[in-house]
Amino acid sequence: MSDYKSEIVIIGCGIIGGALSYKLAKLGYNDIVVIDKENTINKHQTGRNSGVIHSGVYYPKGSLKSRNCIDGYNQIIGFLDEYKIPYKIPGKLIVAADETEYDELERLYQNALDVGLQANHMDREDILKIDPNLVGDKGFFVKETGLTDYKKVLEKFVDVGKELGVQYLFSSPIKEITRMDKGFQIRAGNQMISTKYLINCAGLQSDRVYELSTGLKSPVTIIPFKGEYFKVPKDSYNSDVAIYPVPNPDFPFLGVHLTRMVDGTLKVGPNAVLSFSREGYDGFEFNLRDAISNFSTPTLFNIAKKYKTIVVKELLKHKSKSFFEESVKKYWNNFDRESIIGYTCGIRAQATEKGKLVNDFKIVCENNQVHVLNAPSPAATSCLSIADTIINEFENLR
Ligand SMILES: Cc1cc2nc3c(=O)[nH]c(=O)nc-3n(C[C@H](O)[C@H](O)[C@H](O)COP(=O)(O)OP(=O)(O)OC[C@H]3O[C@@H](n4cnc5c(N)ncnc54)[C@H](O)[C@@H]3O)c2cc1C
C-alpha cells in the first residue's frame, strides 16, 4: 500500500477534474493528487460526447450554465489554439419543423441575442443554401458553434498537469473516506491518501462520492440518460454547419442533431434513453443499485405524469432506427435508415432534486470539500470556466 500526502485531492479525472487540475497547477497550487477509478482517462462522459463547442443559446442569462458556457467557449478556443488541438467553427442552424415550434424558436433567438451571440434569422432560401435536403421554412444561425475532440483536450490537461507536478492515480476507486480533524484520509484502490481539501468531480457517481465524504444524504440523485449515435454516409450532407431541432423547453436535452466531426465523420444523435446502469454502455445493461436509485426519486414519476406517453416512449426507445428517422426527417429528408451504422454512445449524469431535473450546473461546498453535483452538457465546452467557479468556491474555504 502506498501513501500520499497532499493539499488538494480531486476525485474524478474527467474533463472537469482534468481542467481543474490543469488550472490549479498553472496558478501555482502545489501537492495536488487526482484520483480516478478507471485505468485510464476518457472512459465515461468526456470520452463519449458529441464534441460540440456550444455557444450558450439555450441557457437563461445569468445562470451558471450561461456564464460558464460563454466564458468557457472563449477559454476552450484559446486552449485549443495554444496546444494546436484540431477544431472548427462552422456555426449551427436551429430549424423549426413547423409553425408549432415558431414561438420557441423565437424565444431561443431572443435569448441568443440577450447573451451577446451573433444570431441571424434564416428563411427557406437561406436554409436551402446550407443543404438542399433541409426541411423547414424558419430557423436561425449562430456563428459561435464549433466541433473538437474532447478526448484530446483531456489528454492535454493531464500531460500539462503532470509536467507541473500534479499526481494522477488511476485504477484507484474510492473505498473509504475518513474525516479527520484537519482534512481527510482516503482509501482509493490500494493507496492511502491524506489531504486537507477534497474536490468531488466524479460525474455519474458524484452523489455517491458526496455521501461517502460528508456522511450526509446527497441533495441530488443522479439519473443516467443514455445517448446513442448513428453514423451517416459522409457525402449525404453538403455542409459542415451543425443542424439542431428546436428542443422541448421543459427537457434538458437538445434533441437529435446532425454534426460533422473534426475527422469528417457525419453523425446523428444523441437520443435520450433512460438507463438502468450508470456505466452500462453495451446494449441493455441492468445494475440493481442504479435501477433502485432511479426509482428512489419521484422525478421519473413526475416526468411520466407531466409528459404522458410521448416522452416516456422516447425514454425507452433504445437504438431505435425508426425513432431516429422520425426525429431527423423533421429537418433533413436525406436520412436513409438503411444506410446508417450504429456508432458510439454515452451516458449523461443528470442530477435530480426534490422530484425535478436540475437544470443548472450545481456546485456545493461542505466544510473542506467542494462537490460538483450537476455538470451535464455543455460542461465539456465550459470546463475551464467551471474550473474557475470551483476555484472561487475553494478559495472561500481557505
Ligand atoms: C451523449 C453525450 C453528449 C454530450 N455532448 C456534449 C457536447 O457536445 N458538448 C459539451 O460541451 N458537452 C457535452 N456533453 C457533456 C459532457 O461530456 C459532460 O458534461 C462532461 O464530460 C462531464 O465531465 P465530468 O468530468 O464531470 O465527468 P466524466 O467525464 O464522466 O468523468 C468523471 C470521472 O470520475 C471518475 N469516477 C467516478 N466515480 C469515481 C470513484 N468512486 N472513484 C474514483 N473516480 C471516480 C470516473 O471514472 C470518470 O473518469 C455530452 C455528454 C454526453 C453523455
Task: Provide keyphrases for this structure.
D-Amino Acid Oxidase, Chain A, domain 2, six-stranded antiparallel beta sheet, alpha+beta, single chain, FAD/NAD(P)-binding domain, 398 residues, 28% strand
Indicate the proportion of strand residues: 25-35%
Based on secondary structure, the structural category is alpha+beta
| Strand segment tally | 21
Name the CATH superfamily classification of the largest domain.
FAD/NAD(P)-binding domain
Mean pLDDT value: 94
Number of domains: 2
- State the distance separating the first and last CA atoms: 30 Å
Q: In one word, what is the shape?
A: globular
Tally of alpha and pi helices: 10
* Biggest sheet overview: 8 strands, mixed
**CATH fold assignment of the largest domain:** FAD/NAD(P)-binding domain
The CATH architecture of the largest domain can be named as: 3-Layer(bba) Sandwich
Compact description:
With 398 residues, the chain is α+β, with helices and mostly antiparallel strands. It has helices at 15-26, 64-82, 102-114, 124-130, 150-163, 206-214, 288-296, 299-315, 321-329, 379-397, and strands at residues 2-11, 32-35, 52-53, 87-88, 92-95, 119-123, 138-142, 146-148, 167-169, 174-180, 183-188, 191-200, 221-232, 242-245, 257-260, 266-269, 273-274, 341-353, 356-357, 362-366, 369-374.
